[in-house]
């Protein structure tokens, strides 16, 4: 391993991700539903903002899954990428509202799990 690739180098993806994660706080419980309060997708995205300060971006891809929707969060930085795995959410009703709600739910949980929010 060269000195350029060591984890102590501040120009590595893993180092920058670790620095960003140290700054990422909790998402605020800003919404209420029948079952109580929860953190909205906007709140989770706000909590993830330190990623950008460290040169890291994320994109959430939809993935086909049986009987539902799947979302995978991918982290990008320094020419590398980390795929975090698919979060699959079942969809009971076959209408646009149910699919959209499941996608938002999956996005919220995928990003939360990827970053430990």
Layout: helices, strands, pairs:
Elements: H1 13-23, E1 31-33, E2 36-38, H2 41-47, H3 50-53, E3 57-65, E4 68-77, E5 80-90, H4 96-115
Antiparallel strand pairs: 1-2, 3-4, 4-5
Brief summary:
The chain is an alpha+beta fold. The chain has four helices and five strands, in the order αββααβββα.
What does this protein structure show overall?
The protein is an alpha+beta fold. Helix content is 36%, strand content 31%. The chain is built from 4 helices and 5 strands; from the N terminus they run αββααβββα. A hairpin with a 2-residue loop joins strand 4 and strand 5. Helix 2 runs parallel beside helix 4. The two termini are 32 Å apart. The mean pLDDT is 91.
List the helices and strands in order: HEEHHEEEH
- The tally of helices reads 4
Tell how many strands the DSSP assignment holds.
5
Cα-based radius of gyration, to the nearest Å? 16 Å
For the largest beta sheet, what order do the strands appear in spatially?
Answer: 3-4-5
Q: How much of the residues is beta strand, in percent? A: 25-35%
Q: Unreliable runs, pLDDT <50, ≥5 residues?
A: none
Largest sheet: 3 strands, antiparallel
| Structure classification | alpha+beta
**What quaternary form is this?**
single chain
Distance between the termini: 32 Å
Provide mean pLDDT, rounded.
Answer: 91
Q: Outline, from the CA principal axes?
A: flat
The portion of residues assigned to helices is: 25-40%
